Amino acid sequence: MNTKTDVDYLFEPRGVAVIGASQNSAKIGYRIVENIVQRGYKGQIYPINPKGGEVLGLKIYPDLSAVEGDVDIAVITIPARLVFDAVKECAAKHVKHLVIITSGFSEVGNVEEERQIVAYAREHGMRVLGPNIFGIYSSAASLDATFGPGGILPGRVAIITQSGALGIAMIGKTAAESLGLSALVSIGNKADIDESDVLEYLARDEATTVIFMYIEGVKHGNRLVGMLKQVTKKKHVIVVKSGRSKRGAMAAASHTGSLAGADEIFDSIMRQCGVLRAESVQEAFNWAHFLADAPLPKGKESVIITNGGGIGVLATDACEKYGVDLYDNQAVLKETFAPVMPSFGSSKNPIDVTGQATAEDYERSLEAMLDNAGMHAAIALYCETALFNTDALGDLLRVEYARYKEKKPIIFSLFGGEKLETIVRTLRAKGVPVFSDVYDGVSCLGALYRSWQHLNAPEEKPEDIPIDVAAVEEILDRARKEKRGFLLANEAQQMAQVLGLSMPRSIVARNLDEAVHAAGEIGYPVVMKVVSKDIIHKSDAGGVALNLENQNEVIDAYQAIMRSCRAYKKDALIEGIEVVEMAKPGVETIIGARQDASFGPIVMFGLGGIYVEVMKDVAFRAAPITKREAHAMVSDIRSYPLLLGVRGEKRKEIDGIVDVAMKLGALIDKCRDITDVEINPLVVYEHGQGVKAVDVRILFQTTREVR
Ligand code: ACO
């Protein structure tokens, strides 16, 4: 029985046709055939061109119908206007995957033809990679169906790239850096196959241990999140996303026609999925190279060995920056290193064997550390000195690395003149993780530890938070009858009740007497707010009065609100005035949820006021969220220490925030016609005293979404 899934044929095809195969070596259609041949593809190659003839010793077929064997992939490299007809021929031949190299589709506004091609292909059981791509490489089939420079080294890193030109350049770069690849997939316009489809295969591919994605925009983020969460439980995943800056995001949007979502959202959600986000392609390459070979650490404590104090301090700073913990048992450090290092050195971590150390001193110290099972990762630094015979250094590091590389993660950083630079280049070409800059090396170790923590985190099943969807929709439907896409105060109260959110007590008064009576019943101080479907921004209309201490203030405020609102909008229908319990002061936070254009339902949290508006100190997660994810979102914000309690203050009710976040996540996930929910402020009290949703705003579609 054939157990291969659809996407498997893309990476392990039995036969590959090249439609537009050319005898002209300047053409892409020639280059692709040449790469397939040179790489030593294991299956059948079928060059297709109506002119017939031969290319690189292979017979050229006039069309697909002349081919007898199975064709799992058709690489299409003919002008855009001819592509659809070729796709129809592929359907007749029962091709499984179309790899459409051709440009000139949605990326230049030709959206409709691209859509039609994909629809036709899917109807006929075919999947489409591209269009607007440079092809695919798969080490499983020894297949290089790209028009890149060739010479891809086999290895454990898989690359998925949205940018073609960058991807082709990466081929050369991987060869220059001796980085071996298990796969390289150009996804271009992502008209059908996207990152998630490719990840689905790579997750199962034993040859792949590291996946590096270059992304410009996310289209089906909800699915991507689900897929990434699974993959990062087995492999390291690195992402570089361009479009961080506002101008960059605009450039990316016009480049691929895809949505470049807000960078903060992308960043938060990648963290949620356990994906390592690199700043640059070079950083991603460094990480990929290191992670492909490094063993997983057995613990968190690293040791720095150096022959120079300054570089040791720099490495210590880098460890703090990248979250690498340093071994700190001073007694053990002394016991381990004092016998093997010069007496004037320091056995505190960093272990400083000093500039007077010989190669033998350095080697003995390095081995003492590598042999100690309690020291989990090694950072070995070297500054060029006169006493140390640098000629021997390259061999020393290569031998030590070969001996210990399976046992614990090791990085080296060498700083000095031309001789050292040559050693760095030579060792790197042999796969030894050596860096000129100590920050580059420690950054790799930090990436390994972040990924390791995620791999080690216990599996958490998402909790099903019950939401009474019928009750929610009933409230929304009442507003919809008035063609309203937002809730009035009393409706927001009802919604809070359905969700089980604690709100300040409130009563809607229809006249002054009722307002005075309501204030008495609730207890002073109170807040008063106008209730009118014609006044959305209550404060702007003078429709809010805070901190009313007694009956007289309530009477004055009632009259003032009525006067201001009438002046603001003469014909506004005022249904009443809401008298609300004045919430006790606490830490004001904002918590919300919405349907994001890239990721679908997401949840957001931040501290209120300037923290959100000026500092943009917010965190996001893709919904629905687990308890641990909700906790991580809350602790992600920079002002988190304020919730833990500073200057003798007590810890705040963080569990209460987590509870609200999970409820909003479930609501926005289950009720997709709700577009925005915002609780501002959610006042957070001391631990044990709960949280209060002071103002709940909900926006929704005025017509119900049929799901
Ligand atoms: N079946 C088979 N072969 C055909 C057919 C057909 N139905 N119709 C035409 N051909 C042949 C042509 O006769 C020609 O062969 P020849 O060299 O023997 O004459 C060959 O197919 C190619 O057709 P051309 O018209 O010569 O097209 P050309 O090779 O110039 O361009 C291409 C085709 C490369 C697909 C071009 O249209 C294109 O899209 N280029 C951009 C590709 C690209 O950059 N993709 C994104 C990559 S990523 C990045 O940004 C780098």
How is the main sheet built?
7 strands, mixed
Q: Kindly, what is the distance between the CA atoms of the first and last residues, rounded to a whole number of angstroms?
A: 36 Å
Please state how the strands of the largest beta sheet are arranged side by side. Answer: 9-8-11-10-12-13-14
Shape: flat
Total domain units: 4
Tell me the radius of gyration: 31 Å
Report the sheet-strand fraction. Answer: 15-25%
Say what the CATH topology of the largest domain is.
Answer: Rossmann fold
Tally of contiguous helical segments: 24
Query: pLDDT below 50 for ≥5 consecutive residues: which ranges?
Result: 252-261
Provide the CATH superfamily of the largest domain. Succinyl-CoA synthetase domains
What CATH architecture of the largest domain would you give?
Answer: 3-Layer(aba) Sandwich
Fraction in helix? 25-40%
Q: Averaged pLDDT, please? A: 91
Strand segment count: 30
CATH level 1 class label of the largest domain: Alpha Beta
- Ligand roster: acetyl coenzyme *A
